[in-house]
């Protein structure tokens, strides 16, 4: 059966921001894939819906981003998330330093300020979006998604507290607020008076950033970015870059989606890394480059020629086996190939 989840994935990610997915690697359901959220099926092949419904409770207890055994078969489970979003509230000197770092580490960056001279594309040319509006209205414009990281660095305590109060109502990946410990304590007390519990307030990183002793705007920005990366990487999930989702959307011809489902040793990319391949070669994404990626591209092109829909291949980069691939870094990759 031809796998078609790749063609519906861009729309589903836009709608949900994050979904869980599972695919059987062997057994009677080989190649069958489910996308779900909570207890609800988001997408699957219609004739498999009843079987998947029975398995969802077990899937929710299955480790993420690794091969497991379920229903006497091997299965690979992931949490797929869209490109992470960094929202910087405030357009001052620290924001100027955070914005380019956010782009470098792979975030879609939005900058918000209520002053035209601080919120414009000339001041923030690297930002994906710049919003000039009062902070309450600006926050209302920003989609409420679990994969958003908020940095509160406005020009004053009142605006900081307002942003924190509005954002604590949301489902976020990270929320940080700048300020001294005295200022943070006062803000927490104000928010507690508004009804927020200690557990809710503890979700906010304040004072913001890792304690590296930063003093200049650039040093403070580095400490904030480091804390964001630390927070992001505490959860195993597979990020889908915008260019790969765009390539899936634009693909009118059959293509093959290659995904690393198992990594051991020092191979360059981890589980969940993906690339999309058409008959001419790589379209978007990467599973690490080099000879392994080339071998995977050739496998994908062969599948497109033969009509094969589903395959799993192992690539051994250990010293004893790497000569044929021209690599000496060591490690092993197992790659899943699905026709989409």
Layout of secondary structure:
Layout lengths: L4 H12 L1 E7 L8 E5 L2 E5 L4 H11 L6 E5 L2 E10 L2 E5 L3 H12 L3 E6 L15 E4 L2 H7 L6 E5 L4 H11 L6 E4 L3 H13 L4 H4 L15 H16 L5 E3 L1 H9 L5 E9 L9 E5 L2 E5 L4 H17 L3 E7 L15 E8 L1
Parallel strand pairs: 5-11, 6-7, 6-9, 7-8, 9-10
Antiparallel strand pairs: 1-2, 1-5, 2-3, 4-5, 12-13, 12-16, 13-14, 15-16
Helix pairs in contact: 1-9, 3-8, 5-6
Compact overview of the structure:
Helix content is 33%, strand content 27%.
Assigned CATH architecture of the largest domain: 3-Layer(aba) Sandwich
Q: In CATH, what is the class of the largest domain? A: Alpha Beta
CATH level 4 superfamily of the largest domain: NAD(P)-binding Rossmann-like Domain
Tell me the radius of gyration: 22 Å
- Care to count the β-strands? 16
| Helical stretch tally | 10
Strand portion? 25-35%
Terminal-residue CA separation? 11 Å
State the CATH topology of the largest domain. Answer: Rossmann fold
- Mean pLDDT across the residues is 90
Domain count = 3
